[in-house]
């Protein structure tokens, strides 16, 4: 008969958290910045089709770092949640707060109950009519939720990237400035010299939530993914 | 064990909002509930019915137009109902039949297309959209058998072929591609007659709007369930055009002008029809 060793809950949770942190630290960072024109989401991602940034609903976007299969299933669950809610109530009843709380609950449940925690970190962003009404939520693997202002940085070198962005962030940034600032943060300063030129549009994934999508594009869907040509044009 | 997990994951991976609802929230579907089984509908239910929709191709795209009347037996249930809707960026649909179910079905179809786009990251092909709509109409068959039928007309711009296309449906979900023009609803016979005389190949978008307004005028002339242009309340048909740049709602001012032209021309002619 095998003896079950006693492991204290503190130790168990710590081991799980360390495991998840290690997984997340391996990946590249993602930056979400609230600015004058709306919200910019920038990720370093060489794949043009396996996205880290996605549209959830009219005014809501999603960004993630970590294991693709895990955050992709969360993204799809988020789209389903939002669409069911918007279909059964009304489109304006879908909010980032509601979605973030559902994510927090599912991440928390997986962290305590499943074999292994999700190795992901998520950001849920909702663009408002004014910058003060923007919402940025950051969700970690254990289900903790944080209501952030101005910007969110997640992933491997989050601390370093975050200090660069923190220094450069102003409320009056437009999309071009915000994306430039994000790239400055994502590219380590030591490599910036040669990489600033060699980090081409193809290595970036950029999407924005337009604050004025109704008047600018006649669409209530604020999310717009920028292709390589758009990114080059924006940064030119 | 592993294989069954993989199968389960594959089976659960759906990009369809309708399938998701069917599985998790069937009570939210507009169809799927049968009225009391086995009880034949003695008299048709008194519910609002949406009426005439016309659609036609023109040079570079397709157009769809609907009048503004819903009827309930001999009563006008609504003078302002809108029966033509954008389905997504490149397609529109118009509905005739039981208004309550049709409007919910439209909402479901719009979410279905947007949901697919968000999950998959690409737009559904025009054929794919037309097939999905057919499946929804078939889902409504039990209710259609009891008198609550919905018959849509679907038009969109096929971005891969670069042409506008038109699809009609029957209550069993049968899908038929139409050429040139098509009409559905109670006034469709009269609108069709007008279209046969007015429609020409390679119409411009503005001419097509004029043809649509006139054919709806003819339908309203002979069908009591179709509403004509209402100059007192300033109500004009709803018209959408779809071309390579997407679906666009024709502004009220253009529709008012087109409607007044028809009324004026007929007043001057002063003939019986």
TrEMBL record, chain A:
Pathway info: Protein degradation; proteasomal Pup-dependent pathway
Q: Do the record's keywords include Cytoplasm?
A: yes
In which domain of life is the source organism classified? Bacteria
**Predominant cellular place of this UniProt entry's protein:** cytoplasm
The cross-references to Gene3D superfamilies, in alphabetical order and at most eight, read: Glutamine Phosphoribosylpyrophosphate, subunit 1, domain 1
Keyword terms, alphabetized? Cytoplasm, Proteasome
The answer to whether the entry has keyword Cytoplasm is yes
GO-annotated cellular components: proteasome complex
Report quaternary structure and partners.
The 20S proteasome core is composed of 14 alpha and 14 beta subunits that assemble into four stacked heptameric rings, resulting in a barrel-shaped structure. The two inner rings, each composed of seven catalytic beta subunits, are sandwiched by two outer rings, each composed of seven alpha subunits. The catalytic chamber with the active sites is on the inside of the barrel. Has a gated structure, the ends of the cylinder being occluded by the N-termini of the alpha-subunits. Is capped by the proteasome-associated ATPase, ARC.
The Swiss-Prot or TrEMBL record describes its family as follows: Belongs to the peptidase T1A family.
Name of the protein in question: Proteasome subunit alpha
- In the record, what lineage is assigned to the organism producing the protein? Bacteria, Bacillati, Actinomycetota, Actinomycetes, Micrococcales
Originating gene = prcA
Automatic annotation (TrEMBL), chain B:
For this record, the Gene Ontology CC terms, alphabetical, are:
proteasome complex
Residues forming the propeptide are 1-50
PROSITE patterns on file: PROTEASOME_BETA_2
List of catalytic residues: 51 (nucleophile)
Compositionally biased tracts (Polar residues): 1-19
Q: Name one Pfam family in it.
A: Proteasome
Q: Which family does it belong to?
A: Belongs to the peptidase T1B family.
Task: Spell out the subunit comment.
Answer: The 20S proteasome core is composed of 14 alpha and 14 beta subunits that assemble into four stacked heptameric rings, resulting in a barrel-shaped structure. The two inner rings, each composed of seven catalytic beta subunits, are sandwiched by two outer rings, each composed of seven alpha subunits. The catalytic chamber with the active sites is on the inside of the barrel. Has a gated structure, the ends of the cylinder being occluded by the N-termini of the alpha-subunits. Is capped by the proteasome-associated ATPase, ARC.
By what name is this protein known? Proteasome subunit beta
Q: Which organism is it from?
A: Pseudarthrobacter polychromogenes
What gene is behind this protein? Answer: prcB
């Amino acid at each position: 008969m095998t003896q079950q060793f006693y492991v204290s809950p503190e130790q168990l949770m710590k081991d799980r958290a360390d495991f998840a942190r290690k997984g997340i630290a391996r990946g590249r960072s993602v930056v979400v910045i609230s600015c004058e024109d709306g919200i910019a989401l920038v990720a370093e991602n060489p794949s043009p089709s396996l996205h880290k940034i996605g549209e959830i609903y009219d005014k809501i976007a999603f960004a993630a770092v970590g294991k693709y299969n895990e955050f992709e299933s969360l993204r799809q669950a988020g789209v389903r949640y939002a669409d069911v809610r918007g279909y059964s109530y009304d489109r304006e009843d879908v909010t980032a707060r509601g979605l973030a709380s559902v994510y927090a609950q599912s991440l928390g449940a997986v962290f305590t109950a499943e074999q292994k925690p999700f190795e992901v970190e998520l950001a849920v962003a909702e663009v408002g009519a004014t910058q003060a009404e923007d919402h940025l939520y950051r969700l970690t693997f254990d289900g903790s939720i944080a209501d952030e202002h101005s910007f969110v940085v997640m992933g491997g070198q989050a601390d370093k990237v975050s200090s660069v962005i923190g220094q450069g962030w102003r409320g009056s940034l437009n999309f071009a400035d915000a994306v430039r600032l994000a790239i400055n943060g994502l590219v380590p300063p030591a490599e910036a010299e040669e990489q600033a030129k060699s980090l081409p549009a193809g290595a970036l994934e950029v999407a924005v939530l337009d604050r004025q999508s109704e008047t600018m594009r006649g669409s209530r869907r604020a999310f717009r993914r920028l292709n390589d040509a758009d990114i080059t044009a924006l940064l030119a | 064990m592993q294989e069954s997990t993989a199968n389960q994951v594959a089976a659960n991976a759906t990009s369809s909002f309708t399938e998701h609802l069917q599985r998790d929230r069937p009570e939210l579907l507009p169809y799927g509930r049968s009225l009391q089984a086995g009880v034949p509908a003695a008299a048709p239910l008194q519910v609002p019915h949406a009426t005439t929709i016309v659609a036609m191709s023109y040079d570079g795209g397709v157009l769809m137009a609907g009048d503004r009347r819903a009827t309930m037996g001999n009563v006008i249930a609504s003078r302002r109902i809108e029966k033509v809707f954008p389905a997504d960026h490149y397609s529109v649909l118009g509905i005739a039949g039981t208004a309550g179910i049709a409007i919910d079905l439209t909402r479901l179809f719009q979410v279905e297309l947007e949901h697919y786009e968000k999950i998959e990251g690409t737009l559904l092909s025009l054929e794919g959209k037309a097939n999905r709509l057919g499946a929804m109409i078939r889902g409504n068959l039990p209710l259609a058998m009891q008198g609550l039928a919905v018959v849509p007309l679907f038009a969109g711009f096929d971005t891969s072929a670069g042409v506008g296309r038109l699809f009609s449906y029957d209550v069993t979900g049968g899908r038929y591609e139409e050429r040139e023009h098509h009409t559905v609803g109670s006034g469709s016979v009269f609108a069709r007659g007008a279209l046969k005389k007015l429609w020409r190949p390679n119409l411009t978008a503005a001419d097509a709007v004029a043809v649509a307004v006139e054919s709806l005028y003819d339908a309203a002339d002979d069908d009591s369930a179709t509403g004509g242009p209402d100059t007192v309340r300033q109500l004009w048909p709803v018209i959408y055009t779809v071309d390579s740049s997407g679906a666009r709602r024709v502004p009220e001012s253009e529709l008012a002008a087109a409607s007044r032209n028809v009324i004026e021309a007929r007043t001057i002619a002063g003939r019986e029809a």
